[in-house]
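Re-run with default settings, no changes from the original entry. Doing this only to confirm the output is reproducible before filing.
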Amino acid sequence: MRVQLVDPPAYTPPYDHSLAAALARAGADVELVTSRFQYGPPPALGSGYRVSERFYRRSDALGGPGRLKRAAKLLEHAPGMLAYRRHAREADIVHYEWLTLEPIDPWLLPPTRPRVFTAHNVVAHDAPRGYERARRRLLRAMDAVVVHSEFGAAQMRERLGVPPERVRVIHHGAFDYLTRLRQERPLPSELGGAEGPVALFFGLLRPYKGVDVLLEAWRAVTGAELWIAGMPRMPLEPLRRAAARAAAPVRFVPRFVTDPEIPALFRRADVIVLPYREIDQSGVLYTALAFGKPIVASAVGGFVEVAERHGAARLVPPGDAEALAAALVELLGDGAARRRLAAAAAAAAAGPYSWDAAAAGHLALYRELAGR
């Protein structure tokens, strides 16, 4: 079976490459059709699949992110999507992982069928007016929609009106490739010298992720450190002021953290904190599972399934700083409880959240669609 995984903006190279490699291991002929990732080289996961960087070739030559590059990409988008139509004829299944401009992309898609779309975020965070109408239009153009949780499936049916028979739950895989990188880098210089327990918040800093709630909760913690590592997509100064009011140290790494730097962060952390106000799923969760780390997470979205079905996380109400503080104080002081959560996380990563399980789910869907 010839499968094209399509991610024109290269939003999620770790996911794209992990799924492509797993599908190839399962016997599919896989091509990842994407663009150049602007924050460094993508994961190198073997030669079992092909990578074609067909989109945004001219704008990618302009270097890193910036206004000029964004404008160039907008100009290049429609011609690039139309040019892809001929190439899509070579596939039996075209699976869109992301699309750059959902309001117009339904009119630019190749006619090749079947089409599959993965809704990594069922409804976008801080979505602009009219977003849901545009997403409904896009979803109607697909033969099947993949989501990563039962929560996401319910949102698809109830909020976006997608017929149940076109929604398929296939779990996101744990990012285990990070546990076996050939060249790991040491901890960033900003984080050296920590001796006690460490709680880690990792990923883009955005309001819906509840970093402010975490910093409020941290005022009740002593004898540990909090590390906040990730590129800011919100004002950083209010977070620094909140950190200064905490009794225990808070250290920031406010930039994009590359793959070779990630293992040292997760290996050193004693607890991974996901204090999100809302979410369907998060790549940080699947990184924590891969490293077998204890997790404290808000009881939102697919986090609930990971905690309740697999015992791989401690849940707290979203936005509740007091409950978050209590959970952190308890876990940071209880090694046995951390070990139980860690074992459950590792088991989940090796089983239902493995990439081989994800590949099997995708191939079953592809065969079903091709049989129709």
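The chain has two domains: 2-173+354-371, 180-350. The chain has a mean pLDDT of 94.
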